[in-house]
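Lab notebook, bench 4. Still working through the backlog of constructs that have no structural model yet. Next entry is a single chain of 96 residues. Request: give me the structure tokens for it.
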Amino acid sequence: MPTPDPTRSARVEARIAPDALAVVRRAAELQGRSVSDFVVAAALKDAQRTIEDTQILRLSVEDQQRFADLLLSPPPLAPAMKRALEARKRLIADAK
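Model written out:
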């Protein structure tokens, strides 16, 4: 059995249904881990996946192609965008 990690200092408690606990115990046993180690590893893995899923933008092949095409050949600026850019130039020039 692995030795406890001395860097662990926080505690998490959770309620779990008996049948779910039986499944977790069995899975932990199959991996040769304690229930606590198994639950921490599973929670950490899921937390990392969740964070990654929110930080990585995934596009279909078609959307990737459209994105690349728009980067290489952007559409003409809308009149409102042209006015905004001119206003920005004036603001920066006035600030100097």
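Notes after review: The chain is about 65% helix and 0% strand. The two ends are 68 Å apart (CA to CA). Flag for follow-up if needed.
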